[in-house]
Write a structure and sequence with these properties.
The chain is α/β, with parallel strands linked by helices. The chain is built from 13 helices and 12 strands. It has 2 domains: 193 residues, NAD(P)-binding Rossmann-like Domain (Rossmann fold, 3-Layer(aba) Sandwich); 122 residues, N-(1-d-carboxylethyl)-l-norvaline Dehydrogenase, domain 2, CATH 1.10.1040.10. The protein is 44% helix and 15% strand. It has a 5-stranded parallel β-sheet with strand order 5-2-1-6-7. The chain has a 4-stranded mixed β-sheet with strand order 4-3-10-9. The longest helix has 22 residues. The mean pLDDT is 93.
């Protein structure tokens, strides 16, 4: 394991946490970052604050994929808009043997590749606006990853850990492969609770169920998740969006393991949690809307499911982000 070339692309809230935990386990990983966050890591190291205990690591940190060269494993821990902007550069990290592990929210670019049924390889503009991500990041080399923990950037170079510790991993088209076992083993050694699944798309959609409701509604209201779910009117809005999403998933052959109300109970247990979209809005960062919610609008059209609640919230949150200067894409999917 120590001889592997591993890069964390995007050493922010999620990527930074993974990078530090790998380092603590004796697994070297470089980080690809930018701006003040990169400057801080290069100057004083990457710091993790976990239950008020501070850990500082000193990974190789750069803004240049070319400097790092082809890797054995890359963890993509970017927001979707950042991935769209950097995909061409990221191919410099990729060889034919590189394992690509997207640890991202929303529906990824590879989701429809190899999907059983009539919608196999359907292009989704919301997940791949320029229709070129598969050229740079081949879906055949992907191990999917779903994140069930929270963290945030406290300040440049410093990650503050939140609740949760689970990562779910699986391959889109197979199970039990050597590369899947390698990724699961690395993350387990780093201290994460790792679940290996034979149906990674189902896991992604189950996570999406929470993200596509909590994220945009929180950005519109500035409310934490407990407030949204405890209000009967916004609770009903969440449920209505989830039912539309469930109908879309069924058309794709994805049967969700819990019903909408059970999933809402799981979310409510997280308490007064501030979503990543609300954090981005407050910090003036580009908001991740289309891969999380716009994809529901687009896929509803593709599979023939009406999505009036998704559409209404999507229209509102796009306007909110656009008016704040935090939404640069015009994806009228």
């Amino acid at each position: 394991m120590k001889d592997l070339k591993i890069t964390i692309v995007g050493a922010g809230a999620i990527g930074g946490l993974i990078a530090v935990k790998l380092e603590q386990a004796g697994i070297k990983a470089s980080v690809l970052a930018r701006g003040k966050h990169l400057e801080a890591i290069q100057a004083t190291g990457l710091k993790l604050v976990e239950q008020e205990v501070e850990t500082v690591t000193h990974p190789v940190a750069t803004a240049s994929a070319e400097e790092l060269g082809p890797q054995d494993i890359i963890f993509l821990c970017l927001k979707a808009p950042a991935l769209f902007e950097s995909a061409y550069e990221l191919q410099k990290l990729i060889s034919k043997d590189t394992v690509i592990v997207p640890a991202m929210n929303g529906i990824p670019w590879w989701f429809m590749a190899g999907l059983k049924g009539e919608y196999d390889n359907t292009w989704l503009r919301t997940a791949d606006p320029s229709h070129n991500l598969a050229d740079y990041l081949p879906p055949a080399q992907v191990v999917g990853c779903v994140i069930y923990f929270g963290s945030s950037i406290a300040e440049p170079g410093t990650i503050r850990r939140g609740l949760g510790n689970q990562l779910t991993v699986g391959e889109p088209g197979s199970s039990g492969t050597a590369r899947l076992e390698l990724v699961a083993g690395l993350l387990s050694k780093a201290g994460f609770d790792v679940k290996v699944t034979n149906d990674i798309r189902q896991e992604i959609w189950t996570k999406l169920w929470g993200n596509m409701t909590m994220n945009p509604i929180s950005a519109l209201t500035s409310s934490t998740m407990d407030v949204i779910l405890d209000d009967p009117l916004t609770n009903q809005l969440v449920l209505s969006i989830m039912e539309e999403s469930k109908s879309i998933a069924a058309k794709l052959g994805i049967i969700l393991p819990v019903d909408a109300r059970e999933r809402m109970v799981m979310t409510r247990k997280l308490g007064a949690f501030k979503t990543s979209m609300l954090q981005d809005l407050e910090a003036g960062r580009q908001m991740e809307i289309d891969a999380i919610l716009g994809v529901g609008h687009e896929l509803g059209k593709v599979v023939g499911v009406e999505t009036p609640f998704i559409n209404a919230v999507l229209g509102l949150v796009r306007q909110r982000a656009r008016n704040a200067g935090l939404y640069s894409y015009e994806l009228d999917a």
